[in-house]
Design the sequence.
């Protein structure tokens, strides 16, 4: 019909070599099941002997990471707008027994109207009976956004998504995550032990 779509191509041999079979199947399953205005929309999924293909809507606005680096920080109103849409997306996932587990700026795309779309469900966990029960134990995510319970090796639930959400909101306004450090081990120590400090220019 003349529309433009995005195509994600995955080599089966690479998926197997990296031990990503379960993650890839989970991503396809989630994208097939979930329909939400602020989550990437899967249109088609098919395969050849060697490759898997996921066809989604094309989000021409780039990632939130790109826009934040360009702006070096959003106004509170702009951050609030993106946060509200992201909150609805995460809530919808949790209501459908899915814990996202990899919230970061790079995984938030933008369409040509300026609305966001959550993408990349490779680390997500589906079919979680009670998402707020502490029952998962796999260590995963991106260093800057990892919740304390993960670093402590404790079992966790959907609260890890809300920790990442808070980190991302802070980053949108301040330009960097609250406990950021170029040394990953120091950053983990800060996440576990340092008090959360807000710049004086933030409103209450």
Sequence:
């Amino acid at each position: 019909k003349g529309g433009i779509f995005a195509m994600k191509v995955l080599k089966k041999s690479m998926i197997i070599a990296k031990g990503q079979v379960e993650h890839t199947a989970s991503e396809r399953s989630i994208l097939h099941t979930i329909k939400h205005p602020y989550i990437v929309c899967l249109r088609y999924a098919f395969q050849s002997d060697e490759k898997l293909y996921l066809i989604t809507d094309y989000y021409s606005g780039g990632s939130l990471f790109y826009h934040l680096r360009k702006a070096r920080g959003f106004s509170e109103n702009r951050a609030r707008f993106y946060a509200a849409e992201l909150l609805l997306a995460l809530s919808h996932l949790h209501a459908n027994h899915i814990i996202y587990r990899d919230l970061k700026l790079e995984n938030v795309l933008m369409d040509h109207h300026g609305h966001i779309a959550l993408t990349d469900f490779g680390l997500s966990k589906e079919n979680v009976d009670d998402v707020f029960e502490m029952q998962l134990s796999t260590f995963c995510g991106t260093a800057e956004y990892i919740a304390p319970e993960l670093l402590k090796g404790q079992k966790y639930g959907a609260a890890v998504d809300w920790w990442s959400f808070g980190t991302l909101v802070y980053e949108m306004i301040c330009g960097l995550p609250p406990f950021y450090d170029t040394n990953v081990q120091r950053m983990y120590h800060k996440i576990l032990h340092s008090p959360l400090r807000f710049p004086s220019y933030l409103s209450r």
